[in-house]
Design brief:
By secondary structure, the chain is an alpha+beta fold. 36% of the residues lie in helices and 21% in strands. A hairpin with a 2-residue loop joins β8 and β9.
Length: 321
């Protein structure tokens, strides 16, 4: 539970594995629950939020909800996990367990650890490992080299120019379909092109760019095929691009169940198309710049090197190999 900047979690921080083991061995399970017993890490009433677990190998896990965020290992090392995404709750939890010398903030979509004045990004999906030095201070075992990405304008212009025909098609459709207030795309029109929706969301996730973390990269692959189409039926592919962009950046008219685009949405659609092209050609358009260890910088174009874009390029490279 939080009261302003004061967190009344009941957690006492651990200096090392010995402290964590002592806490586990001197805390009793909460029994008589419908679910299996849990051993509280903080206040007993908050056991579903903060709990402590001893693994078969002796490691001690400090669990936030269902995620073992901090693990004190028998060998003296500590592993910290974000649990898949960077949340302020996780950022608050880590220093409560680790104590003096470790603080955490959410920065640039990642958890940023400050360890005795040096800052390190945590990957959202892999563990970050620490060990105490001879002076008893936590230090990273192997800090990953971090990069930021700068855009190469000449290369960017070159790849965008390849798709001038697609941009021209969007502009022609804007002039044709925009009535001065809106361009309208009916539910029937979208379903005739993509079939009935597979979910119940107002904005169909299966044809929303960035809409579904698990399958979005598959839509990216289809999108690339459509914009690359040079056949006699290419305008049908461009039409699919238009509908995906309308579904992504447009808004729903709840009275008519139609997707609409105002003037500003057309600009957003062109920017979305440009971003997709950047993502497809990321290795040509962006250059990585190494960041000094112990420092963090915002990576403006980092989104093209993680998540759905990373999965898209991994699958593309597997096909090529």
């Amino acid at each position: 539970m939080a009261f302003g900047n004061y967190r009344n979690s009941g957690i006492s921080w651990f200096r090392d594995y010995g402290d964590a083991l002592h806490k586990y061995e001197n805390t009793t399970d909460i029994r008589g629950r419908v679910v299996e017993p849990k051993r509280p890490l903080g206040h007993r009433k908050a056991v579903d939020m903060y709990s402590i677990v001893k693994l078969d190998n002796g490691d001690i896990e400090c669990v936030l909800y269902q995620t073992p965020v901090v693990t004190f290992r028998v060998d003296g090392t500590v592993s910290i996990r974000a649990g898949g995404w960077a949340s302020q709750t996780t950022a608050n939890f880590i220093p409560e367990v680790m104590g003096h010398g470790v603080s955490v903030r959410v920065f640039d979509r990642k958890l940023c650890l400050n360890i005795h004045g040096n800052e390190y990004f945590m990957d959202n999906h892999t563990a970050f490992h620490l060990r105490k030095d001879e002076e008893g201070r936590w230090q990273p075992l192997e800090a990953k080299q971090m990069f930021v990405h700068n855009i190469k304008r000449k290369e960017s212009n070159n790849v965008i120019r390849k798709y001038a025909e697609v941009f021209s098609y969007l502009e022609s459709m804007r002039k044709l379909r925009h009535d001065g207030t809106n361009a309208t795309f009916s539910k029937q029109e979208i379903e005739e092109c993509f079939g009935e929706p597979k979910d119940n969301y107002a904005r169909r996730l299966d044809i929303t760019l960035g809409g579904h973390h698990a399958t979005g990269h598959k839509l990216y692959a289809d999108f690339k095929t459509w914009i690359d189409d040079k056949s006699e039926d290419k305008h049908m592919s461009y039409y699919k691009v238009l509908l995906v962009l309308a579904n992504t950046v447009g808004y729903m008219d709840w009275h008519t169940n139609e997707r609409r685009m105002q003037s500003r949405h057309w600009l957003e659609a062109k920017n979305a198309l440009k971003n997709m092209i950047w993502g497809f050609y990321r290795d040509e358009v962006f250059t990585p710049i190494a960041v000094h260890k112990g420092y963090v910088r915002r990576d403006t174009y980092g989104r093209f090197f993680e998540g759905e874009w990373e999965r898209y390029h991994e699958e593309k490279n597997q096909v090529i190999s």
